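User: Predict the complex with PM9.
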Amino acid sequence: MKSKIRKSWAEPYKIKMVELLQMTTATHRKKVMQEAGFNTFLLKSADVYIDLLTYSGTSAMSDRQWAGMMLGDEAYAGSRNFYHLEEVVQNCYGYKYLVPTHQGRGAENILSKILIKKGDIIPGNMYFTTTRLHQELAGGKFEDIIIDEAHDPENEFPFKGNVDLNKLEKLIKKHGAHKIPYVSMATSVNMAGGQPISMENLRALRALTKKHGIRVIHDMTRVAENAHFIQQREKGYHNKPIAAIVKEINSYTDGATMSAKKDALVNIGGFLAVNDWDVFEEARNMVVVYEGLHTYGGLAGRDMEAMAIGIKESLNDDHIHARVGQVIYLGEKMMSYGVPIVKPIGGHGIFVDAKKFLPHIPQHQFPAQTLAAEVYLDSGVRTMERGVVSAGRKANGENYFPKLELVRFTIPRRVYTQAHMDVIAESTARVFERRNKIKGLKMIYEPKYLRFFQAKFQPL
Ligand code: PM9
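Assistant: Here is the predicted structure with PM9 placed in the model:
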């Protein structure tokens, strides 16, 4: 007889050191939220109890990574940690050439400047804020070619990160392949809620782009989480280790930008990795202008060592199972309280559907920004907006009004416990109970670039 008892996951580590948290009062939270202009990015970390603003650079490093930091070779040129990192990128990810950068957007800047010419089109499976901005600053135009299901929070399609190949073919027909320097393909699509792309779709994307001589550049920031969903959901992958799935994903692409602050479990770092010698040569030259010498790219030797070790740890099956397991635990708890979230639950956080949560607040009054502020006011849990504020403005000055208006509860890796997840879900449920009394916001300060980081708001 099959047992009915749930088989839980647990973290494949134990805790050696703790960081004390700050508890705050409701009065204090109200005061600091007003000072922060109702933007959770402008709160001081000391005023935050549980910090889900981002999972970027906020991971807990392992004892091995900390030990690796003591092996930092802080030579200006040719640090031994660079060669270790290069070997790990080649062996674990399968890319030939490595250019380290201080973080992901450093790699995006260099890549965009090398490959994009004015008037080029860059199709991608949903935009990401920094990625699209660098493409635009280089003179390109981003075109969304993700499948329609990705724009519907209720749609439970298991691979909502897939590329719609018909959309791509139409773009090729309209503009010609020579106008498309590469397809910008992300794994675990961030703005869609951490939704994976399937191996089948990747294979088809490779075949189509090969036919037209178009590169595929991989935003591999969360490739291990994507590999987990392929392992769990795609036929033929159940018994394949995460490490092998990651290598197969990469094999269908020509290069990658990486923010190592996510999957790779470090607090700072990133890289550009390519298979094409000519692109590498240019990138190696350009990195000295924007980041630092090509063997450190804005990083200390110790950072590169921690990254090399972190990459290997990130591909461990038990690690990734527990990491995604914690996200799913929080999502299921939220759903049990009736909180509307993006489904299926993604890899790096829970994305609450603010349009459904606060249907009486129109999008131009920033429902997701409002909800993020309300959750903080309730409990000191910090989240962030991923909706109309994050989407920004088009070249003609008009606001983008994205279909998805979400609040992101992203979970730092190896940092919080299951009890923290309970506190977060309960706080969100309390705000849900009093949702009808919540009013929207108006924007009173708007910076020119990536406005979500620094914009200020006032309650209506
Ligand atoms: N992502 C995140 O929290 C940090 C900045 S936005 C709050 O989700 C992708 C898919 C990312 C990403 C950063 C970057 C840029 C590129 N691609 O932050 O520059 O999710 O290391 O990476 C953030 P860096």
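The radius of gyration is 21 Å.
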